[in-house]
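$ run holo --ligand "heme C" --emit tokens
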Amino acid sequence: MMGRHSMGVKLGIGAVIVAALCLSQWLDHALYAQEVPKPTLEKAFPSSSKCKRCHERVFEEWETSPLSKSIHSPAFRASLDAFLASPAGKDKALCFRCHAPHVREFPEQAQLFIDQAKAGDPSLDGVACAQCHLIKQVDRTKQPPEPKYELGSKTLYGPYKDFVQNLAHQSMELGLFQKSDLCLNCHQSVPSAANLGKSNDLLGNWDQSKAVKSGKECQSCHMPEQVGESANGEKKRKTANHTFPGRIGKLRQEAAKLDVQTKIEGDKTIVTVKVQSLVPHSLPTTHPAWASVALELDIKGKNLKTVFTDKRVYGRVYQDAKGQKTSFDFEAVKVLEDTVLKPEETRVETFTFPTPKDTKTFDVEVTLNYAPITGPASFLQRVEAESSKGSQDPVFQSIEIVKFAANISTAK
Ligand code: HEC
Ligand code: HEC
Ligand code: HEC
Ligand code: HEC
Ligand code: HEC
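-- output --
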């Protein structure tokens, strides 16, 4: 009896010893796991070309979007240079926080990205597939909100609960992908313009807009729902447009309405323009600092000759620490003038000019455009030099948002 009992005790001690051994091994393992070298940049953030193999439709859409050029556009390359040459440029990784967010996780690679951006060699991604689909969480208590990545994870987050399994990666539904929060971490404010304090705000009171109160998220308008193949050969389902319509694309036509009234008072004519912004955030968004929208009036008299022009500009004028105007938000310390159209605002403009003479009618043309890039001559020359299209680069052209035209009779 005694023998069997003590056996039991011995076994018990044995189990404890085994358990303790296991625990210490597990602890070793846990410690070891922490010392596992960090995955390389290429492993942690696989290149978009790897996703293309199975997600051709998405890839082709994304490739035409501005996002695919986030570190390769001539304006970015020229302004990155200007930034690096400025006192704020000591923080080499700052622009990449949003233009190539994986550099945040690999700050030691900042110089590599600078060299690549300068070379205009698009072999490195800026804001591509993995840079969004590996975001697990966005911390909105931080200003600007911060993304959390899990380095080395093979799980890609997305909108589907009922995803089809595949051999390349694990999938997981994450509500974040249908929420503005995902976008806010790059679109709300710019840390390089931190000197602006409360004025460092790209979107305005967007969350108070009618659109947002009716349940719209950034994706509702900028990644519109469509039907197609989510992965090559899979059955068609609801998908999200990855061309990110904005300045380019059809969404522009939904940006604003113009209501134009012309009143002739003898020698004097008054044109009143109501500009109604339908955009639930600032128009334009104010990074880069030269971003602006122009309302242009063109009066054509006899033989369609322009007899009067005038314009109003919606944007911001910034001042630097030396009291000079600057086109760069990373140099700005103060907003001198702010004419940005606020979310869903209606702005009324009046233009007064001499009634065109020697003609029975005249034309009133009003256009609302995204204005071309502006800045110091040396900077504009730099942008031109960086572009394969030179002075024909699209940044030097204005982009029409809406246009109004009417023929007005001068007869009483
Ligand atoms: C990691 C940072 C980042 C995230 C996250 C991000 N964006 Fe962007 N986005 C950018 C950058 C950088 C550009 C500018 C690219 C360029 O032109 O160089 C841009 C450009 C755009 C444009 C084009 C703007 C124009 O002027 O035409 C749209 C639209 C847009 N983003 C929408 C979104 C939406 C919607 C989301 C959320 C689903 C989102 N973005 C998430 C960084 C980001
Ligand atoms: C907080 C995120 C963020 C940071 C940091 C940031 N950008 Fe941007 N950048 C954006 C977004 C978002 C857009 C698209 C804005 C739009 O189209 O309305 C953009 C657009 C641009 C554009 C115009 C599009 C293009 O590629 O020509 C330039 C130029 C630019 N950024 C330069 C810079 C430079 C230089 C820095 C560093 C000083 C910087 N950005 C830092 C988010 C950021
Ligand atoms: C700026 C962030 C961003 C980038 C860059 C991005 N996505 Fe997405 N993607 C999203 C969001 C947000 C959704 C969900 C949109 C929704 O459901 O409203 C989504 C949805 C998807 C889906 C499911 C729906 C569909 O349209 O098929 C797939 C697959 C996908 N993305 C793959 C990719 C691939 C591949 C790339 C690169 C070529 C890419 N994404 C680039 C943000 C992004
Ligand atoms: C071997 C083919 C293959 C490769 C390579 C691949 N995917 Fe997928 N992926 C799929 C399939 C299949 C689905 C399921 C689509 C569905 O359910 O409609 C999917 C689904 C997704 C989803 C949706 C997940 C969800 O739950 O919403 C995202 C996001 C995604 N992939 C992103 C990527 C990204 C980013 C890459 C590159 C890093 C990539 N995929 C590479 C085959 C692939
Ligand atoms: C109700 C639709 C709607 C929603 C919701 C919406 N936008 Fe827009 N957005 C527009 C329209 C319309 C424009 C202006 C026309 C254009 O450029 O396409 C625009 C323009 C933009 C631009 C580029 C133009 C510029 O002025 O520089 C960016 C970047 C942008 N939106 C980001 C966002 C982000 C980020 C969110 C979410 C916080 C968002 N938008 C929510 C409709 C919307």
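-- notes --
The first strand starts at residue 135 and ends at 139.
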